[in-house]
Vacuolar protein-sorting-associated protein 36 (Mycena maculata), 579 residues
Amino acid sequence: MTLRRFTKSVDGTIPIPALLYDDEELLSSQEGVGIYDGLQKSPNHQSGTVHVTTHRLFFISTQQAFAYSFAMDLSYVGQTDYYAGLFKSSAKVTLYILPSLTVAADSDASDGLDTPFASWECEVCAYRNPPGLSPAAARVCGLCGIPRDSVPAPIAAPSPHQLLSSLPASSSAPSLLPPSSSSGSHRRQPSTIACPACTFLNHPSLPSCEMCSTDLPRPTAPLSMKSAPSSRPASPDSSDNGDDASLRLIKISFRKGGVQAFYNILRRSLKSKAWEAGPGNSTASALTDPSTTDANRSGITGILRNVENTAQGRETDMNNAFQDLEALSVKAKDMMRLAADLNERLTASSTTAATASSAFADDALVPSTEPEEATFIRSSLSQLGLQMANTPVTLDMMNDERRWIEQLARELAGVLQGAPSAREAHGMMKERGIIALDEVWGGWNRARGVALIPPATLLQVVPHLPTCTNPTIRIRTFASGLSVLHTPPYTHVAFAARLSGLLALSGPKTTTEVAQDERITVGLAAEMIAAVEADGDICRDDEACMIKGGGAEVRFWGNVFHGYVWDGQARTEADDVSY
């Protein structure tokens, strides 16, 4: 039978990751599947889970995982087929075994060399290769690439399974009677007949399929009912005939869906042929000359190529990891959008409920409580880090760039002055009337999380702030190039008038004293004082110019010379007019 010849029994009680080779990777799994051995259902494999890896196909039985679980090498599969199912017939994936492997499978089953789980030492570089590699990778040295010397298989008594599976390939096969006469006496009347079109199991008395009306194959009558002589060995079962194409297949029946995704992954695994990573493998040894591949992996060249392949694989893994991060970023944006939508709905619902409660209780104090579902959703969003009331505005949310800039201006206004609906505004300028633009950029990006804003976009947003803020926030750039955002009390005219009045009432002031009075930094105070001095409203008294003991500091005075009428100036002007 196909399952007996091309599969190996595994212990299904062991987790699948523990059954894999070191260079093997699990690709996909699907529950609720059954196995067809050829065209007939395998009675012991009708409920289980199928796993596909880069090298093998696993079936783990649900009922008796230890006895009826098996693994099959994907190198045996030469062709696949897909059936979507019809009515009560489940979807199926058919695996056709390569004809050239029918004899090779029997010889591999009888071979006593177990390379995957054996450690061996290379005779060239003395490197001890670790166990757990796939058969292809275990046949060559992992360091120098020299193939492992062939070890003669131990002589062991052939098992009945080996005798039975080797009969079709033996030289005595032609001496047997024709299959129709030898197996006819052992053939029993089948209890059901599988439809060749939809695989529905029909009663043997029906001439056509009960589901699709396709003509059913009729069992051939035995030519002779005589039993074989006792001196002649028993004829092999017709199901072991590897030359019959209809019997060299395995069907996987998917009774719980998932066939399309599993079939796509299986095809990709078959196309990649990861089991051919090593030069020596039973599948390709008859088709390719291993000497050319061994030469490429031997010596210093092989070691350098091995290191290069390792580095290239590491780079590929890093690129895949970055692609996964990009996909995660896209998913994170969707989650943030969903969280914002949920928060807005919960806020609206809570506001409506509070309004309704206050309407029915005029004199009583009704506490504003949220439903249990709303509390659970808010706590879940908080644990996921999605507790932001509003998601950051991004360009992909808006079709128009101008509208996007306006939305960013509203968002920045909320960062600077706080939410308008909040009782107490907690923005960056809650107690400050002026702030540097670089500090605004850093605080805004910190509030946006991963959706960062470049400085060029910030400069486009700032001119729209006056229409979105109250009191109005504007941008100002000093002569040194420093840009700040300020409220109306910190405009040039307002500050100049306030500084002139301070100097007139309190006398000269230093830059540090002005900074303390205005509650701003010393550097920012120096920039603003320099702008007022450039207009001629104040003048400086530099004590460092005179010889004096102790420290010296610049003091600013009100400019009493500005607008002063000197003696003779009025007369000179009158004389000029008279002339």
